[in-house]
Amino acid sequence: MAAPGIKDVAIRAGVSVGTVSNVLNRPQLVSDGTRQRVLDAIAALGFVRNESARHLRNGLSRTLAYVLLDPRNPFFTDVARGAEEAARAAGLALFLCNSEEDAAREAEYLDVLLEQRVRGVLITPVEHSADKLRTMTELGVPVVLLDRLANDPSTWCSVSVDDVEGGDLAVTHLLELGHTRIAYVGGPHSIVQVEDRHRGAVRAYGRAGLPESQLAVLETAALTVAEGRRAGERLLGLPSRRRPTAAFCANDLLAIGFLQEMMQQGVSVPGEIAIVGYDDIEFASAAAVPLTSVSQPRYELGRRACELLLAEADAYTSGPGGPGHVHEQVQFTPELVVRASSGRRAARRGA
Length: 351
Description:
Blueprint: H1 6-13, H2 17-25, H3 32-45, H4 51-58, E1 63-68, H5 74-89, E2 93-98, H6 103-115, E3 120-123, H7 130-138, E4 143-146, E5 157-161, H8 163-176, E6 182-186, H9 192-207, E7 215-219, H10 225-236, E8 246-249, H11 252-264, E9 274-279, H12 282-286, E10 292-295, H13 298-316, E11 329-332, E12 335-338, E13 347-350
Parallel strand pairs: 1-2, 1-3, 3-4, 4-5, 5-11, 6-7, 6-8, 8-9, 9-10
Antiparallel strand pairs: 10-12, 12-13
């Protein structure tokens, strides 16, 4: 049975389709008695207005989307929460799309979002998706890069954290504690954040006058607890004379898995190996050995990115690109939160 339409409501209420439309969109133009007859007909028929069709006709959608890398990572759920609050404050809904760190899956979602004519898209890209994202903006769907610095600042707004500085902070901390053989645990390196954090680690080594070769790279297939455990196994399989005495993990999930493996194998943390993570998710401080971690303003990242997207979407109502719209590149500075896993009493140090 077909769902009742606006014509069915008009027939039951004994009014024109235009009158029903006025009740739905401009109720102040309709007398109280007529408006009530229409509302009674709506209730009796179970009529639900087609918001999607209405907004498509008007060229305005009430939905935004965030294409994120992995909702299992609490970092991204905190970012999404900040974006959602900004969207709700503007009377809009935020849909989440999980790319699973898969470029093909990401492209599929972008195609669907373009077909649905969403108001705008927040995205943490898997790789450089410039062509696909540029097509979206050309077709009137604004895009803001989230947790990623725009390669072309004239094309998109972006909100990110200085991950090179964050990697530098983490490794400088370990070097100051006397560690010279440090492992960088993270991957795949096609993820820009992973590569930037590695660049920061290399920079810290260079400033300390140490050869980059002393930084052991343990690349992982993903940024997960399971991959952190596997990396811990690999490190413990190295000859003791070559084994790093500290590990900087590209995110806290890796660091937690790495820590679990050390504890299971009876390796003292931080006595035999120090560990530093990245993101400072809630679980970092609650780990069996509280994790030292590089902190990012997760909620604020999402909120600020959504605000930029809303501003650009408003500008798009006057045409693609938005006359007078200037793309902004917002970059936050990370902080190092020092806890027991690196062997120094708790403290907080900014960049």
